[in-house]
Structure formats: structure tokens, C-alpha cells
Amino acid sequence: MLNYDLVIIGGGSAGIASAIGAYDNGLRSILVLEKEAYLGGILNQCIHNGFGLHLFNEELSGPEYAERFANELIKRNIEYRLETMVLKINKDLTMVCSSVNGCEIIKAKAIICATGCTERTRGAIATQGDRPSGVMTAGLAQRYLNIEGYLVGKKVFILGSGDIGLIMARRMTLEGAKVLGVAELMPYSNGLSRNIVQCLQDFNIPLYLSHTVKRIIGKNRLEKIVICEVDNKNNFVLNTEKEFEVDTLLLSVGLIPNNPLLANLGVKMHPRTKGPIVDDNYETSVPGIFACGNGLHVHDLVDFVTNEGIYVGKKVSEYIKNGKLASEKYVTIEAGNGISYVLPSKFAIDKGVAEIKFRVTKPHQKSHINVIYNGEILKSIKKQYLLPAEMEDIKFDISKLDCGNIVLEVIDD
Amino acid sequence: MYDIIIIGAGVNGACIARNLSKYQLNVLVIEKNGDVGDGTSCANSAIIHAGYDPHPGTLKAELNVLGNQMYDELCKDLDVEFERNGALTIATNEEEMQGLYHLLENAKANNVKVELIDKEKLFELEPHVTKKAIGALYAPTSGIINPFELCVALMENAMDNGVQLNLNEKVIEVISENNTYLVKTDCGEYKCKMVINCAGLFGDEIQNFVCDEKVEILPRKGEYYLLDHFVDGFVKHTLFSVPSSKGKGVLVSPTTSGDYLVGPSSDFIEDKEDISTNKDVLDNVLKEAYRLVDNVPMQHLIREFAGIRAYHKSNDFIINEPTAGFINVIGMQSPGLSSAPAVALKVENMIMKNLELKIRDNYIKTRRPLYRLKNKSIEERDKLIKENPLLGRIICRCEQISEGEIVDAIHRNCGARTIKGVKKRVRPGYGKCQGGYCQTLVLKILARELNKDMKDINFKNKGSYILCEESKGEKNVKL
Amino acid sequence: MTKLICIVCPKGCHLEIDESFNVTGNFCKRGEVYAKNEVTNPTRTVTSTVKLNSKILKMLPVRTDKPIAKSKMFDVMEELKKVEVNAPVNSGDIIISNILGTNINIIATRTIKE
Q1: C82 has a chain B CB within 8 A of its CB
Q2: What residues of B are labeled active site?
């Protein structure tokens, strides 16, 4: 049985960053396990630019961003294994791993799960109609196009205004396909504003807000879709159907953290993020198992994933050095009015300053974020724009607080 | 000249083919779809019914009860997932209790072991059942099966023993001539001594080619929800409502893969190929399911699907020989899957009256087992990977299926040719991501193993292409 | 008065620019520059792939090393169809220099060793 201080599951942006974070804080016995034949994870198929603005003030493509960090990993001589899949994690921090070389057990003092996320599928959103080929998630079409070099269709419609869908609208248009439109269930877009401008408006691709696909039609390959307006309860509005003859329907209807290993272990999951519930050190409900990146909660920018990974790597190295991290006194953090989720779910008072990530449930213009401690406003900050698609963060002093409950809320001015 | 042509490679066609493969016969199976078991046989409740429901004296009753008994040996021989998990028919009021008494009578007449159980025993057996339940009929011999594996395994074993399978070939006419038959397809024509009509929903068309007395098969659609497996788990037994005139009603059941089925609806439709799903229908399915359980874990929904059952107005199976040498196996709606082994036996006996059946010398009744790495210990897995490294490379991360298992599924007899074919045989694409991650990899493996261009790999039937064209197609200058 | 959403960073400021190029709604200086460019000479970074001969990968991801005139995006795509690259290639290598006479290069964005 192999032994390491730290095993990181996933060699994408979060996994690499956490390895670097742990190494730079003094840890040396580190192993990164990656299922693909290369490091970098999903970034390798995200060939568009816009990565690294926050960290490098540059607009890198996904593979460039991935390579920078993979090189940092290699520079530090951090050990990694490719084409290796973790099949199971046990509570004693052993893992069963499979690769072409065999099936073996690896034991760690701490594990970081950086397993990324998966796309929501047609089944998960229950779209009615036939079951032809040509209906697929945007990320799958992206992989076919950017890695394998194949267009999945020539006449395309996109359901959901998530960023991957928008990016694929532009990608497929540039490669010669005709994108007839994007339908978004909500009355606002779920993608970043820059993607609405650069990927849709630049190519005159219409965005149908408050619309969804009502019916999928086609015997073998997709032939036609019917979209329809929806009311604020998501019911179809009568006589608002529009038909589009398309061979492809791409779904960009959300991402879900991918955590079968943690779920099978019985780690407590967050009902909103669908990732594990973590404390201020990003430790899950099972001692010694940590999480970061899109496997924890879906980020909108890889720069934030990297920062989170480095932070978690640092915390885990402290955990291994000290044998524990837990503090005596905590405040719990909850999502209040207009807040979709907060992360982490508790913060140690001896940390002094709480740093909370959150998302709002709907867009707001001119509003305030209030931090409420035991019923009283602890801090209030003004916000010009708030969008569900964009993760926010807030810092506030907790050093003078006692154990208790903090609620975050958004109030329109 | 073939001895026998079987039209249709659903569970009945495949089962008959396998039974006939033990004899010195020249058998051809013609299937219009791109794979075996792609029609009614792949979209149903996957239940091996105990046999207490059909009216005593019907073919359904006789063949269901016998078929059920045959499944242990069959699945052992062919390495097919099958489990007698037991069924509970749930009554929530007095009227339904009366229905249970009626079923109990049926069960006695059909010679099926059942037991009426009270509320207490019911909750002990199945804690997930609705708190409104007042009693249930327990049928311990009811089982769940992997219907995809079953059809594939039957045909694979038939082919191991010399049966020929033609896929993607549609029968367009059957002509009776001088004690033989001429079967014309969209690809060619074949002569044979006997025809077995297992054409499912299209069985009427086939029979009407050769018989003056016309029959009609009506399509009756059932829509389902499929829920993903999850740690806490859900029902262990198959839960039924008390049957009504419309059929067995909605059931809630585990599958052999640990997933959960909720459905079906039951509606006559026009188009025999309309496998669309519909919100209003499925909403009603869910409503019905709440008569059986108090909570349906819809957060684990991964798929909706529909299957079409072949209904004949007699509401019974039609297994006959309307003209010498032409055998009908039609109207095989529920419990068609449960009855299939018994149906095949019956058909075998009918054939004996027409042809002399001599046992083949080198007949093998078992199929080489699948790897099923998921059920193996670490040591066994390691040993297998050392022998075949591809068994170590995981392709489907939701279901943890290796490249070696996929390659095996392609190269067996009756091997996978399509994305759906791989999915049906070894499950990549059945999990939470529904192929969002692994489809590219499976498609590449299919192209490589079948020596085809990636563009030529279909999802299922002809025309269900996945890739349209190369993005940087032509006129490249080398740098 | 033209309304724009700033795309310089993911913040997506809602900008307004008038006839005399006065910009409002921007949180930073770059927003002002963007708005002025966007109404006079809009530019975009083009990202795509070119054919690659390699043991590992079929397509090499590439991009323009600077934003190019928006009107030239499809012309760039046509040029990319014409090339085929042999491994090894390093991220940052120039694949097409001075594309369409713009003084802008197409560069590889992934290192492929073999």
C-alpha cells in the first residue's frame, strides 16, 4: 500500500492549485491523481480566451491557463499520475485506484477532492418529446469540436444561457454552423454579460428570455424543436410556440458538482450547491477530507477556482502538520432573503475575519447586502449590480462575536 | 434455403433463436433496428412477474407462470442480471383490499405462491411504502431483470451456436410458395421452410402478408421516469397498485442496476414508433406513484422514456400457426418479458411438428460471463488488469466502466455497434451524466475497434448520427 | 447615445457613450477605452483550432495574439482552414504570422510534445 501525506483527486485547475498551495506551505509528500491522459481538466477543451484576467491581467485561453499551472506543478516536482481513477474512498482515508497498471490502495493523511462538475442533462430537466440523436450537452459538443475536430451539427439551437452554451454558439457559428437562437427559462440570462455580447450579439443570435423547449421532434436525428414562452411559474404560455428546424439542440442548463466518491462515503451534501458542506477550512463532514473547485460549488471564473485551491492546499498542509484544524468557537453562516447559497457554512471566530462566497437568486440593481448577526445588521454594503451568474464575496470582522448565527440577505434600495 | 427465419429480434425472437440454436438448423434472424431488443423489449418495467395477475386459463397465465420459473437457470447460463426481489401489491382502502382478495384467488388458480400481509408486516418488509397502506399482497417469486442484457445474451448465445443475425434490415413482404416461404427485405430476399413472426408492434403486417384472416396490433404507450441510484437507497421490492382495466397501473421498482423505475402510463396511440414523453402523462404517473410511496426522490431523476406494448383485442398473446409453417408470436404485451422462455419452449414444440429437430453436437448453452469489474475485489481486479490493461482504464466515471469491458462488448457475438448498443450492454451513459462525459470516449473506441470513421458511428439506428462533419475539413497546407 | 455592456472583464459594466465619446457607467478606465473602441473600431480575440499531426491530439488550439477587427473574424477562420501543423509545438509558437496583413499573429495555445 502506498502512503502519502496528501492525495489530491483531480488534476484540473482546482487540484493543481491545491497541490501548489500545500507544497508552498511546506508539504512535500503529495500525489495528484488525474483520470485523463493530461493535466488541466476541462480547461483543455475551453479553447476560448478570458481566463486569467484576475490573476495575470491577461486573457489566456483555457489550455494556456492550464499549462501555466501544470508547469508550476512540474517545477515543484510534485508527483502526479495520469489515467488513474479513484474508484472508492474509505473513511480511514484509503482509496482504491484503477489504471492500466493495476488496481491498488493508496493511503493518505488528508484527501482533497477536486473532481470538478458535470452538466445537467435533458433527463434532469424533463424536456418532452422524441429521443433522437443531436440533443446533447454543450460541453459534449465542445469536446467533439475542440478536441476531436468534429462539428456535431449545422443548424443549432441552444437551450439555456449558461456560459458554455453561449461560448458554443460563437464557436459553432465561426466553424460554419448556423445558430438559430438561445432560449432561457428565466427572464434574465445566466451567462456572463461579456459572453452575451461577444457570443450572441456579435453574430445576431437571438436570445429568447422566459422561453424553453416545449417539444423535441425527430425519429433518428433531431429534425425540429418547438420553443414556448413560460410565465413566472414556468408554465407554458398559450399560443406562444415557435418552431425551428434544427439538427442539433445543445443544452446549457447548469452544472452540478461531481461527487459520487464523497456521496458514497456518506459525506454531508449541500442541498443548493450539490457539493459537500464544508467549514472555513473547506473540510467536509468526514475528518481529513477536503474539497475545492467546481466539485465543491460551481465557480464562474477559473481564477477563483485557483485561489480557492491554493487556500485549501495551505489549510490542508496546516492540518497535516498540526493533526487538526478545528477551533473552539464558530459562527454559523446561512443564506437569507434573496441569497441562493453561502459558503462555507461556518467560520471559526479565532480567524478574526470571515470571508464568505455567495450567489443571489435573481438579478438586482441598486441593492444592499446585509450581514445579520443574531438579528442585528453587522455590516451592509451597497451593490450596483448583482447577478445569479456571478459569484460574490464579502469579508467582515467576526473577532468580537460569540457563537451564534449569521444570515446574509439582499435588500433592494 | 434457411430452415427457419425469425422476424424480429426482441426478447421473444432472441429467446426462440437461442432455443433453436441447439438443433441442427439453419436459422436466420432479421431485425429492422440497429440492435437486438431495441423495441418493446428495451423500454418496459423490466419485471419478471410472478403470474398472479393474468386471468386463469389464458395463455398469459400459463406462460407467465412457467416463464417465471425458467428464469433462474436461464440467467445463470447466460450471465444476466436477475434478482427475485419480490413484489408487493398495495391496498390503501377497502375497495382495493377487495382487489387483493380477487388477486389471491387468481394466484391460487394459477398456482402462484402469494401471501396477504397486514400493515405491520408490510412496513417491516418495505419501509418506503406509503403510510396510507392498509395491507398488501406479497409475491416473493416476482423478480427484476436487466432486459437489455437478456436480449443481447440470448442472441449472443444463439450466434455462438450458429444462428445468423441480420440487423438494419426490414422485411417488406413474405410470400408463401410450395410449402416454403420467400422473405423479402429492403436488402435482399431469403427462402425458408418456416417463418416465426416475432415482429412485435409490426407483427400484424407480417401475418397479414400470408394470411387471409387479418389481425391488428394496437400500440399502447407507457411512459416512465428513471431515477439514479443513490446512497441512502429507496424501495427494495417492486410496488404495484391494485390492477384496473387499464393494466397493472403504475409501479415503483428498483432495477438490477440499482436505479429506480416509476411508471408506466398506459395510453393507446396512433404511431407505432412514437416513443415521445409528455409532461401531462408523466405528471399523472407521478401522482399515481404517490399512491404507493409517500416520497418519490425526484431529485435523482436522470431520464424519462417511453415504451410501446403490442396489444391485441383478445387481450391475450397470439401464439398460433395460421398457415402451415408460419408461426405467430404476437400481441406480446405484459407479461411478455416474463413469459418469453416459456413462449420459446411452446414455439419449439410447435416447430417439432413441422421439422425434424436433431441436437447439435457442439452446442454450448452458456455464454462467457461479462467482466462485471464493479463486483470484483481489488485483488481480482488487479489480476484482471495485469492480464488486460484496458480493464484498468475507466471510461464511464458515473458507472465506473472500463475500456476493456467496452471493447469486450463490441467484439462478442451480437456485439455493440452503436453508442446505445454499448450503453445497453455495459452501461456507460446510463449514469448521472447520461454520457455527457464518456460519450466521446465510447464513440472513439467504437470507431477504433470497428475500423470506422468517427462520423460513421451512430447513436442507434441508421440516420441517428452524432458527428456531422470535420471542422477543418479540406485543402490544408502542411506547415 | 449608445448603450453597451463592457466586456473587458467579467464584471460587465453597463456603459453609455454619447456622440462626443463621453463614457458613463464604467467602474474603471479600461471600460472607457473599450466603449470608445467599440463604437469606432470594435475588435475581438479569435480562438479556434487548426489541424495537427500528433500522436496525442488531432486539433491544436490557437488564437490571435491581439484582438483583431471584428469584421475580419470569418476571414481569419478561412485562413485557419488552410493550415496543418506537425508536433512538437509549444504554446505561444506562431502558427500564422501577420495574418491577413494585420500585424497580428495566430499563436498556438497548447504545448504538444509528440
Answers
A1: yes
A2: 49
Query: Which cell goes with A295?
Result: 466539485
Interface touch C84/B473, C-beta < 8 Å: no
C109 vs A61, A171, A196: nearest CB? A61
Is residue A202 classed as helix, strand or coil in its secondary structure? helix
Residue A376, C-beta contacts closer than 8 angstroms, at least 6 positions apart: none
Q: What is the three-class DSSP state of C82? A: coil
Question: Exposed, middle or buried by CB within 10 Å (0-12, 13-18, 19+), for B320?
Answer: middle
Cα–Cα distances in Å, from B109 out to B63, B65, B112?
14, 11, 8
C63 and C98 in a common domain: yes
> Among residues 88-107 of chain C, which lie with CB inside 8 Å of chain B?
95
CA–CA separation, B108 vs A52, rounded Å? 73
Hey, which chains touch C, using 3+ CB pairs under 8 Å? A, B
Nearest Cβ partner for B389 among A100, A118, A175: A100
User: What residue of A is the nearest CA neighbor of C25?
Assistant: A384
Q: Name the CATH topology of A121-253.
A: FAD/NAD(P)-binding domain (3.50.50)
Neighbours of chain B (3+ CB pairs under 8 A): A, C
Burial class, A105, CB count within 10 angstroms (exposed 0-12 / middle 13-18 / buried 19+): middle
List the one residue out of C28, A174, C73 whose CA is nearest residue C6: C28
* pLDDT of residue B479 exceeding 80: no
Domain A2-118+256-324 identical in fold to domain A121-253 = yes
Taking contacts as CB-CB distances below 8 angstroms, the residues of chain B near A1 are none
The pLDDT confidence band at residue B474, using thresholds 50, 70 and 90, is low
CATH superfamily, domain at A2-118+256-324: FAD/NAD(P)-binding domain (3.50.50.60)
Candidates C47, C49, C52, C82, partner chain B, best to mutate (most B CBs within 10 A): C82
Which residues does B32 contact at the CB level (< 8 Å), separation at least 6?
Answer: B168, B169, B170, B171, B202
- Number of A to C CB contacts under 8 A, please give it: 86
Q: Which cell numbers hold the place of A305? A: 477556482
> What is d(CA A359, CA A345) in angstroms, rounded to the nearest whole number?
14
Nearest to B179 by CA among B198, B166, B194: B194
- B305 three-class SS: strand
Partner-chain contact A144 B467, CB within 8 Å: yes
- Grid cell at residue B23: 438443433
Q: Which of C49, C86, C95 sits opposite B472 (nearest CB)?
A: C49
CA-nearest residue to C27 within chain A is A384
Residue B94: domain span: 87-140+218-306
Cα distance between residue A260 and residue A269, in whole Å: 11
ipTM of the complex: 0.94
Contact status of A137 with chain B (Cβ, < 8 Å): yes
pLDDT in tens, B295-329: 999 999 999 999 999 999 999 999 999 999 999 99
Mutate to test the interface with C, among B448, B467, B475, B476 (most CBs of C within 10 A): B476
> pLDDT, tens digit, for every residue of B382-436?
999 999 999 999 999 889 999 999 999 999 999 999 999 999 999 998 888 888 8
CATH number of A332-412: 2.60.40
Cβ separation A37–C56 shorter than 8 A: yes
Beta-strand ranges (E) seen in B336-479 are: 394-396, 401-402, 469-470, 477-478
Statement: residue B475 has pLDDT above 50: no
The answer to whether residues B10 and B118 belong to one domain is no
Provide the shortest C-alpha distance from residue B166 to chain A (in Å): 20
Same domain assignment for residues C27 and C53: no
| Cβ-defined contact of B275 to A130 (cutoff 8 Å) | yes
Q: Same domain for C30 and C58?
A: no
